[in-house]
Amino acid sequence: MQTESIKQKAYHILDNLPEKATWDDLMYKIYVRQAIEAGIKDSNKGRTVDVKEVRKRFGLTK
């Protein structure tokens, strides 16, 4: 399985934006893509925290 290059990913994002998209729309899409990829990478490396621990740290119940 060949992975996409950054340029290919960027072109894919651009191709899927509506014609009237703004710079903010583009920046948001790039930010979301980067955040998702970073989260997947962290998860694959076992850098996660159980939801129960997160709730405990923030004083949340249930």
TrEMBL record:
<protein>
    <recommendedName>
        <fullName>Addiction module component</fullName>
    </recommendedName>
</protein>
